[in-house]
């Protein structure tokens, strides 16, 4: 198919192009109350074709681009029409000229993954059985479970000479735990692994069952006021992502962020200074750039911009590819010590959010634990509404670490003096 | 004009029919949903210009569904030829149904297959394809430049337009359905900066139709400019309970996030919805009537003729004057619950699983004018521009966020503005507190709805202005 697409590109005289071929195989299992709802299999191969068109106006150079999707089964005439339409559209995309990434060739298979070579349905079955084997007491249990095992073969070919390929394996999905008494409640969790780690999923499910039990015991919302908040687990990625996004070329180039290399981007105060790296989770970016871990924040200073090729070129930087995982270093306090008198430990939110333009963060708490009078009081409801500029000089990280497919860093973050809406 | 049929689906239909017949010879029930999609998105902003096809929410693909001895299974792929049929047959029997027997399976009644056959298409005024990429980019550029010229504090104006023309074919033993649908949406985000902070205000437009979704944007730019520059001086709100007037788009978010997700009846099957215990009971003030429907009485982005399981589109009365009447259901959940499916079985893309999903969801109109509603408030807030929401069907907790609130004192807007605003509380408390309902309904359909944090489908929501007591933070 790639040769047929190149033939169509040549016929259209589209000289600059990139083809992303993605062959995706999925095995899916869905469970309700421990019983199988439905098994599914999917086989999707598609080709994203990006065509570039250079032109000049008033002595200024532009590089327009547009893209189309081509599926197996399209006729040569249909392929030609799609290429023609994309190439036509590219002339209206008046983006200042930029160089594409330098050519790279290479291939990376998945032989270092313990998911390599396994039948996807076997993997899904093993993860399902691991969860279903967790003993429960009939009061707190797994309400429902969805497992998606995906093997994706990626190939990037470009007119520049780039030709790379790599294979990704993932086990992802969601589950809901439920506790019936004293109040019937649930906890919702997502998961995403790139290894055959059924134990990690079991550990996560057991913790969510315990959280459901705690939420069932929660009879009130927090009283409105200002709290020292303990943010935990996956929500830390959303919090720290503020710094990654403000330092992204696609935000700096149009002037949305004013950050420059060397700027102090975190006020210093009583808290810990930030050290953040972006982690390469794939060998190549979507435009074929070899990915490597990159330090973006050191001791509260902005060290390196990253982001999409066009914006990196506009900033005079070498293209970096786009990252999906953050690593945050540091952590000096034990989690247990952070639960000081009056601390509100936010276990789960409906949807913890960060506004990357204003730095406002917050959400409605589905489960929080107030540490007061030597007791742990489970609470539910109420909302956190903080602002990063008001707290960033006072952040305290736990020694304990948390790791998932998009975040590696402290398990807990103590944020002082955050407004909470409650009873 | 009517949206025309897909040549691809017309040409492939005999092969789909042969696959179906092979499956019907072995299994209790089999069906095929197939799609062909054309989707194009345009944007013009300080980041540059973009004209791109998208297959995120629909692609050329098909899904075969079969019902075996105990349960059911699905197989999805991009394309189909006669050579593929034996491979599919083997995968369905030996990979899906045989493996399913390793688990205890849910009881799944065979769906209703009453004979039905039609070809239906939606109407449009302006074909985006005919209007052309150049003209669409020119219009978006004009809107951006006009917006930037309004105030020196405007940092950027991000203008977007997109359309999706989709064709779907559904085949079962007794059904042969085809639909051809075109919807479009557009949005403008105006940004202004003060120091290191950027505030924004947006307007969106959507329609069951074509490029007409672009027509009315430009007239809203001055009011957006006034809003976003006011937001630069917005104050934080003291958390507490406030008497609030919600604009129709905020009402829509409450309808959708706070209540709509809780009456998706696949959640009843999972014992994940508190609403299941409240059918026939009061859940809202008697001023509240709520509907969900994809049938063509509603001309917004989630209108269609049949859903992704071959059930005809419907109009569901959810709340009637404060009393919960019914949820809405996909075919499988309806079978398990012993109720009729309502045409709400939807897939993010044809190769994904179908879930119960909302379509066009809204509160119906009341009798008050917005002016009367504001005048009735001693001290309170006018909530505007919803930004996000998250469902909690099991416990009816509210998480909704709006961009800002305008202060109302002694029945008048004071000009004071608070931002950002988080709505929380217990859904029935909010809905029962509604004391006034506006006399005109507006829908917004520029967004997508997720099930949890995935499976995004196009929806619209809306309603009239409502007056309610809401916990804000």
Question: Which CATH class of the largest domain in chain A is shown?
Answer: Alpha Beta
Number of beta strands of chain A: 21
Decide which structural class fits the backbone of chain B. Answer: alpha+beta
Question: Strand share of the residues of chain B?
Answer: 35-45%
**Spatial gap, N to C terminus of chain B:** 48 Å
Which architecture of the largest domain in chain A does the CATH hierarchy give at level 2? Answer: 2-Layer Sandwich
The succession of helices and strands of chain A, N to C, reads HEEEHEHEEEHEHHEEEHEHEEEEEHEEEE
Terminal residue distance of chain A? 62 Å
Major β-sheet annotation of chain B: 8 strands, mixed
Report helical residue fraction of chain B. Answer: 10-25%
- The residue-averaged pLDDT of chain A reads 94
> Tally of extended strands of chain B?
25
The multimeric state of the shown protein is heterodimer
- The low-confidence runs of chain A, each spanning 5 or more residues with pLDDT under 50, are none
Overall morphology of chain B: globular
CATH fold label of the largest domain in chain A: PmbA/TldD fold
Please characterize this protein's 3D structure.
The complex is a heterodimer of chains A (423) and B (473). Chain A is 21% helix and 41% strand. With 423 residues, chain A is α+β, with helices and mostly antiparallel strands. Chain A folds into 3 domains: 2-213, PmbA/TldD fold, CATH 3.30.2290; 220-238 and 331-421, no CATH class; 258-326, no CATH class. In chain A, the strands form 3 sheets. In chain A, strands 1, 2, 3, 4, 5, 6 and 7 form a 7-stranded mixed sheet that branches. In chain A, strand 5 (140-158) and strand 6 form a beta hairpin. In chain A, helix 1 (2-11) crosses helix 2 (76-90) and helix 3 (120-132) packs parallel to helix 4 (198-217). The longest helix of chain A has 20 residues, at 198-217. The relative contact order of chain B is 0.14. Chain B has 3 domains: 7-119, no CATH class; 125-160 and 187-231, no CATH class; 240-472, no CATH class. In chain B, strands 1, 2, 3, 4, 5, 6, 7 and 8 form an 8-stranded mixed sheet that branches. A 6-stranded mixed sheet of chain B has the order 12-11-10-15-24-21. Chain B has a 5-stranded mixed barrel with strand order 9-16-17-19-25. Chain B has 473 residues and is of the alpha+beta class. The chains are: A alpha+beta (423), B alpha+beta (473). The interface between A and B is large, with 87 and 79 residues.
